[in-house]
Specification:
The structure is a homodimer.
Chain A lengths: L1 H10 L8 E4 L3 H12 L4 E4 L5 H6 L4 E2 L10 E4 L3 H10 L7 E4 L5 H7 L7 E7 L20 E5 L2 H13 L3 E4 L2 H29 L10 H7 L6 H10 L1 H15 L3 H22 L1
Parallel strand pairs in A: 1-2, 1-4, 2-3, 4-5, 5-6, 7-8
Antiparallel strand pairs in A: 6-7
Helix pairs in contact in A: 4-5, 7-10
């Protein structure tokens, strides 16, 4: 185990054995910690919660205070976007460290990272995985297996993070922050908002038959509505313009007169065919 | 087989051995035919397409012309809503027959059924099952296993249809036409419309990373967008008022300012918790 961790750490330009630290051990952070520990890394966890259960499971080697993050070789900020922005301002990162995050919106994070001390390498990250259930109770070392993980950073930074993503079974996808945020407004943020809005409308209408008259397609559509506000508050706030634009575009298409709707169905089917081809 | 079919037919007030006929042998009709044949019924199929492949599979006993539907004990109209309305006007149903349908909107169908000859029992039906793929190629005798199947009709009519639904493994749910249409505007028609509109927007934007940046939640949200226009044209046309009202309500909630969005997330999570409790 120690030698594998050493081999990995050298990818990051760190002395052999420099540990990985995960700041925020909820669903995403604890899953990454678990996967990295399973791959032979020494992983530290920092969180307001007591992480003794994660030490017991072998998912982290030990819980450390936030100040100790400066001693890690690489740090994953696995917090809501607001927490990531705060950590980038307040944690005393030092030259030679690799810092990355998991926030669902990237331009504000990359903007804040510009103020890190010289010599700290920052790479923005966004794993396309998750679950409506939060907390380390829902975590799994396999959460990222087969999932894409967007990376925003320079060549050297991305090349340093990618071996860590491979250790989790994730597939890295390099992109620009603005492109990422524009696209996820449609592929992630608007679906979240619409699923939440429909479930809230169903809750308000209080129709006794609503659950009984939900077929498999409607249930899939609504699945994201179980997600909690704490993560989404920051994402929706920081990508508000793109999400509002996406909402109005989709509403306009949905409200099209019947004669124009046929075109929408045909275009949608073309997209879905390409999507299925991409997945296989 | 013949004796089981006879026993079933007597549920419908028909002479022993009177066959079931399925008008429209696409995904839904062929799946019902397959399930009923497997349960021992004699099933006839009527369709513009050649149904020889269904005879070969043993899913129907034979293909019959539309005129022969009058000789069946019970007839399932498994067509798009426009086709159901046309069949109710044009097929020469006769007293003693049980006629039911699978249309996704019920008030217009029940309205048209009022003009059936005296002695024809009509029960509106709507199976909460399906697949984006259409045609009998995608059919399965198990499509309805565990699915709910809404029924709109009087006590005797519903009681006559229910044994047939049990033969398919479906669970009947009696409701009123107006209640059904109001609820499915939210649980089925609006999800279809929004998934289609989002996929059409993604197709129009032509973002190279759209497929790569679709996580599991976004993919589930979009799944309905593969559905074809031919079925949905009629449903959306005939339930247009309720769907437009649902669209504006959901859009209003989604466009709420951040301070109000927290309430939407909390209400949505309450609905999803109740939904999960109902499912188990």
């Amino acid at each position: 185990m120690a030698s594998r961790a050493g081999a990995r750490a050298r990818h990051l330009g760190e002395p052999a054995g420099a540990p990985l630290a995960v700041f925020g051990c909820g669903l995403i952070g604890a899953s990454a910690a678990a996967g990295w520990s399973a791959a032979g890394h020494e992983v530290w966890g920092a969180d307001r919660r007591d992480l003794a259960p994660l030490v017991e499971r072998g998912w982290i080697a030990r819980q450390v205070p936030v100040e100790a993050l400066a001693e890690a070789g690489a740090v994953l900020l696995a917090l809501p976007v607001g927490g990531i922005l705060g950590a980038l301002r307040r944690v005393p990162f030092r030259a030679g460290q690799l810092v990355t995050d998991v926030g669902g919106v990237k331009a504000p994070v990359l903007g804040a990272a510009r103020h890190l001390p010289v010599g700290v390498t920052f790479v923005g990250g966004h794993p396309l995985a998750g679950s409506a259930a939060g907390g380390y109770e829902a975590a799994s070392p396999d959460l990222f297996r087969g999932a894409r993980w967007a990376l925003v950073g320079d060549e050297a930074g991305c090349a340093a993070v990618e071996p860590l993503l491979r250790d989790l079974g994730a597939e890295s996808l390099r992109c620009a922050a603005e492109e990422h945020d524009r696209v996820v407004a449609l592929t992630s943020h608007l679906p979240q908002l619409l699923a939440t809005a429909l479930a809230a409308e169903l809750e308000a209408r209080d129709e006794p038959l609503a659950a009984a008259l939900l077929g498999p397609g409607g249930r899939d559509f609504l699945r994201l509505a179980a997600s909690g506000w704490s993560v989404w508050r920051d994402v929706l706030e920081h990508n508000r313009g793109a999400v509002e634009q996406a909402l109005e575009a989709v509403r306009g298409r949905a409200a099209a007169p019947p004669a124009a709707l046929e075109e929408e169905f045909l275009a949608a089917q073309r997209f879905m065919r390409r999507l299925l081809q991409n997945s296989t």
